[in-house]
Amino acid sequence: AKSAGGNRSELADPEADARAITRHGLTTALPTALERGEFFIEYQPLVHLGDGSVRGAEALVRWLHPQHGVLGPDRFIPLAEHTGLIVPLGRWVLEESIRQARAWRERHAGQAAGPLRINVNLSPCQLTHPGLVQDTVDILERAGVTPDALCLEVTESALIGADDDLLKPLRRLAEMGVDIALDDFGTGYSNLANLRRLPVSILKLDRSFTQGMQQFPADPVDLKIVEGIVSLAHSLDLAVTVEGVETGAQAEQLRILGCDTAQGWYYARPGPPERLHDLALVDTTG
Ligand code: C2E
Ligand code: CA
Ligand code: CA
Ligand code: CA
């Protein structure tokens, strides 16, 4: 903490100081971390609620820090966004995940219930970066996979009030056959009518909705809200994915409500790519 300005409470709080140092330390270590290959990706399956089959996986980045051990994205993605490192880091995540998508597809050629796909998170800074479309095209070509192997997840808040310039690269990618998912849906107060304007094909319902389904039967108001979102989404030809499914009861409620795909600890925690190769997952109807 700075000594100028006389913020006593901050100076008197050694924990706040330690946090500030760690933050600073992490920020300066980020660029070298990328060069040294300290980042790695875990994958979490996306399961079709109707038949329980695995249809894809979300790529979730982690940092194996030499001193602090494994750090989750919430610890360093905001720092990477702040410093601009998110652009090369995001490109690396994309390249690495697409490589996995290729390996995964080859292994399951003709055996999977549908074309397997990898979901990759895109931060708002990547959206405004002029290289996004070309980088994505290059990465797909280098890996030799078709664009339908990729789904890009963009948060609802990143697209609120988005003008056409911001939507243009997403539209280009969608036209190529890349799926765009609206992540954390339901948290951003977006105008539902606005959805028609966005080049998205999937709504990813925020975990807070799934949490409301914990008891059986679930809270009737929660049920009504999710039911409304699902019917709106389907009428707009959008698929609905739910995240944070931790119990079989939740999975069952969400299936009855018409949600299409689910993700959560009930099926599998995020794990190494090798685990994706095992498609035999828990029965969702149990
Ligand atoms: P998100 O995109 O909403 O990802 C879902 C988060 O929920 C992940 O946290 C996942 O591990 C966690 N999760 C999955 N199933 C369950 C469950 O059943 N219960 C609970 N309580 N949590 C569950 P994680 O891996 O810590 O990622 C946090 C956020 O970091 C992500 O939220 C995403 O916004 C961001 N992130 C992760 N990887 C990347 C990346 O490569 N690029 C960017 N820009 N952001 C990323
Ligand atoms: Ca996501
Ligand atoms: Ca999410
Ligand atoms: Ca989230």
TrEMBL record:
Domain EAL: 23-284
Protein name: EAL domain-containing protein
Taxonomic source organism: Streptomyces dangxiongensis
